Every structure is written in structure tokens, then in C-alpha cells.
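Hi again,

Forgot to attach this to my earlier email, sorry! This is the prediction with pyridoxal-5'-phosphate bound. I've pasted everything inline since the attachment limit keeps bouncing my files.
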Amino acid sequence: MIGTDCVQGGYTPGNGEPRQIPIIQSTTFKYDTSEHMGQLFDLEASGYFYSRLQNPTCDFVAAKIAKLEGGSAAMLTSSGQAANFFAVFNIATAGDHVVSSSTIYGGTFNLFAVTMKKMGVEFTFVSPDCTEEELEAAFRPNTKAVFGETIANPALTVLDIEKFARAAHAHGVPLIVDNTFATPVNCRPIEWGADIVTHSTTKYMDGHGVAVGGCIVDSGKFDWLAHREKFPGLTTPDESYHGITYAEKFGLAGAFITKATAQLMRDFGSTPSPQSAFYLNLGLESLHVRMARHCENGQRVAEFLSKHPKVGWVSYCGLSGDRYHSLAEKYLPNGSCGVVSFGVKGGRKAAEAFMKNLRLAAIETHVADARTCCLHPASATHRQMNDEELIAAGVSPDLVRMSCGLEDAEDLIADIDQALAKI
Ligand SMILES: *Cc1c(COP(=O)(O)O)cnc(C)c1O
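C-alpha cells for the complex follow:
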């Protein structure tokens, strides 16, 4: 079960071996013959040779996350940004097109709409609440993937994963879901039809604000060979690896992650450090215990805010009146996350005054930490966006994002109460 996998998944020590995942702090690995080394370079034999590509500590942790998500293979990256970039760029390159939910993390929006656009990949953004017809209309002959976030940061929209998976599969392309906020403890997108799952492990998985990191998990279910012409990178020989065809040599279970490692990690080098992977694993060991408390605190704070006369609106899918409550009941039956968005009456100025008065909740560009923190996205993470883009991303100028930590709910509520009283 998921709690046991959080604690023990991915690493099983043999007799007399370290109980905790060892930190293999080595850039390189030794071999007896050049022939053996050559086989590793040709991907003919498996083994470690250089930590830019793979490292045992990182692989133990990736294996744990693959297990938690119910995937066939996974890789760690140095950040969530690198994970989303690799997940998309592994199948969509210059001349290709991707359909994405519009309510995604600001950094991902920038990656897609600005940087990947410069690389020749076009994106069409659709509301996560779009009808099947609207979603259908976003596809083009060169569409290679569909992207969305289970619970969007910071808009807190809940993705109808089945609706997006159906549309993607009808067009012969995979659905990529960023599951950072829900974590596999609260939602496993692969069970609802997602093909590839990404994470900013910097958030709840780490959970203590210690190490930036990311992860890509492949379900192993998407049949690249059934759509050969769409995915030449997986279904035709890679001349930079002696003519290997990933989907044939590594099968559905291994092709996507092997290609991302062999090509993208080799060339871009967004490698996590073994030390960071070790910290991530410490977070994962208590993920199932912490998520329950984050959700409980989020729920209590959201309920308090929704009754407060100085608060204009609250967005939290655990509230029975929330727009996403029924989707949350389906996809997030055990709770969503600890992040609550709301608007303080009086707009931008009132939001800033409220935040200045908080004592326990710190102002940070972060979420999903053990310590409660809050942010005004319009003046921070989303400041590159114009007003129209802000609204499309579900971020109004008065929005305050509060990430409820693991403190006592009574203390958090008292802090919010006194800060509201001062405006
Ligand atoms: C933070 C975040 C990212 C980016 O991850 P980093 O680890 O900061 O690079 C991507 N997606 C979501 C949903 C996030 O919250």
C-alpha cells in the first residue's frame, strides 16, 4: 500500500547493507575493461558510468516515486522545471504542437509560451473547464501531447483527467499530468488515464523546503509504435546511439525514460545531486503522514476564511460550495492539498497589508512546506503576465495563495484572524 511504499519502496538492502539509501557521492564509476565501458555507452549493458546520466542514489529514489505513481520507470531531474521541459521535449520538438491547460504554474507557462516557442514548439492553451468540443478544436495534425496539472498552482483548478486523457488518446498522443500538488498519496493520474506524470519534488515530496528537484514517471502504457509516424524520436533509429530504436529495444515500459536519460540528460545535464536525492527520500518517507495534516489544516483554514466578512472569496476544492468540489470528490477523495487561495476585500492593497501583518505565515515564493507560507502571485511568480493572461491562468490581482503547513490549525487561524483585524 501507498504508505508502506513511501517508507520502504525503491530500495531493498541485502544482508549487511545500509538500511538507509546510501549516498553514492561519486561522479564516475570504475570498470575493468574498455569493452565493458563501450557496452554501457551503447546501452547494450546496464550499469553506471557517469553521474550526469545516472547515479544509484537518484535511481533508488526514482524507483520509489515510480512505485508510488504506479508507473513503469522514472527519472529524477534537478528541478520541476527540468522535469516538465524534458517530459514535453522528449516527444515534441521544432514544428510540433502541444495542447495545454491554461491554468498551470507560472514557470511552466513561461517555459511553454516563451522559451519552447522559441525552440519551435507551439502551444494552444485551453481552459481546464472547456467542453469536449472546445478541447477537440485545440488539436492540430502536428499535436504531440496534452498537458495539465492535477491541482493547478496557484489557480487550484482540478483537472478532469479522464476528459483530457480521452481527447489525447482519440488523437493518438499521450496525456502528461503534473501531479505536484496532489502527490500520489491523494491522486494517481495514471489510474485515470494519464500516460506520463511529472513532479516538482521541491514541494510536498520534499516537504521541508530543503532541496529543489523534479521527477518524470512513465506509465509504460502509451503505445508509441501504434503511432509510429507521430513519434519518430522513439520509433526510428537514434543515430547518436548507434541506431537504437528506443520503443523497440526498451519496450513500452522503458522507452520514454531511457530516451529522456540518454538524450536529454546527456545533452542538457539537469542532473540532481545524490545528496539532494537523499533529502528527497527523507521527505518521501513521511509523505503519506504529512499530506493528511496539510489537508486537514487547509480545510480548517478554508472554512474559517469562507465565513470571514473581510474575505471576498475562497478557492479550495474541499469546500462543499467550491466550483471544483465534485471533481475533487472523484479524483481526490482523501483530500487535495494544503494550499488555499482567497481574495481579501479591498483588492491588491488590502492583500499586501494582510500579508504584512501575518506572524506565523511567512511571505515566500514557495508552497508545500512544513512551515505555513503565503504569496501574492500577481506581484511575484506571475508578474510576467498581463491582466488577460492572469485571468486565463486563474490568478486575479487580489489572489493570496496560502500554503498551510504542519502547525496546529488553531494557531494558523488565530494568526490569519489578527492579520485580517488590522486591515
Ligand atoms: C513549483 C512547480 C513547478 C516547478 O518546479 P521547480 O522545482 O520549482 O523547478 C512545476 N509545476 C508545479 C505545479 C509547481 O508547483
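The two ends are 47 Å apart (CA to CA). Residues 79-81, 84, 105, 107-108, 149, 153, 178, 180, 200, 202-203, 212, 214 surround pyridoxal-5'-phosphate (CB under 6 Å).

That should be everything now.

G.
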